[in-house]
Amino acid sequence: MTAQPDAPLDLAGIGIGPFNLSLAALADGLPATTAGRPALSTAFYDQRRDFRWHPGLLLDGATVQVPFLADLVTLADPASPWSFLRYLQHRERLFPFYFAERLHIHRAEYDAYCRWVSERLPGLHFGHQVDAVRWNPERSLFEVDFTQLDTEGEAEALGRTYARNLVLGVGTAPHVPEPLRLLTDAPTVPVIHSAHYLDHRERILAAEHVTVIGGGQSGAEVLLDLLRARPAGRERLTWLARTEAFAPMEYSKLGLEHFTPDYTRYFHALPEAERDHLLPRQWQLHKGIDPTTIAAIHEELYRRSLHGGWPDVCLTPGVSVRTAGRVATTKVELHLEHRQQGVRSRLTTDAVVLATGYRERPLGALLAALDPYMRKDGEGRPRIDEQHRMILDPAVTGALYVQNGERHTHGVGAPDLGLAAWRSATILNSLTGTDAYAQPTRTAFTTYGLVPEQARRHPVRTELLPLIDQV
Q: Is pLDDT of 285 > 70?
């Protein structure tokens, strides 16, 4: 619930993606104080006009890669009114969902569910761009400056709010490799990131030859969509990937235990150098391709070969793009290198879709005023404790939490939807100094490390005074 304008908030959130939406939903579920007031006064801000989750990749039939139980709240509070099942009940779709027997829901359905929550949950402020964050030592509060935007995205009014604690959930941004950045601005040749694929789909389909770069799930989904839309024998598609193979996502049951609180705590306790060494080697846990998507691509290719001949599709892993440039005004030339063969080549194409992933949004400008207070690791990254809280100078008595910006400290599960509710509950427990949401003591059959207690412990941070008013 939003605090009165002149009263400081207990928690201000920056960004309203799935993770901060999860936190807002669970904060809404905290029991009121004995005086009948909300347990926490909160407000969350986002510059977008409304909630949208990867709108450029809401392809027909595309599914979320985690089970529907990994919604905003269920794995922390199965009785929450903000669960996916409650959404289905509200839409009178429980029985159709029951008979569909789906574990993994459509991506468009997950987007619709989150939007349903965002339209009903109090304290969410869309159309508010947060410009700067400061610590006010006189008031022992964070100052949050924002610009209220009109329906066209133009500045309408300036504002400031005060909060005892902050949580950053600004998400990630599409990553465009350096050799291709200048080409994304070319008006005559479509070179677009897969995040914007649906906005440009008709233009891409009209191109004579299309190249998809990136061997993960997004690249596979875009290739499959293009393949299904182009005539047999005239596909003219190329799919390139830096990885040595178009590899499946690690979906084994024990492999999935890397996305448990047990593994997250184990990873956080490792030395910084070991964490940095380990992360790149775990790419197949989160950057591989869903096996059903791989099977669908192979089936489509096989179907096109039934009457002899091969489809005009080139799938080549182990390739990197060294440089790229325009040819005249209508084509792009990619300069390629195959690392294993040690050879280089050129590819001329009419359109490029960059399924090259996402990177954490830089926080330097937003947090510039807090930089002197921040404690950083050997690589200049923020140090983040087990409760997902930035480690700041003791002079800052408020807490600054991070969601999906702590992969370097918390591992591959940081951006995973399956840990959203657990992390939100962890933050709320830390904020209130209570076990407002009971946390499991063990979540994996695997014992990580030789000291199992270190992986299974769940400390409650008590140095922050409880915010719940007991009066």
A: yes
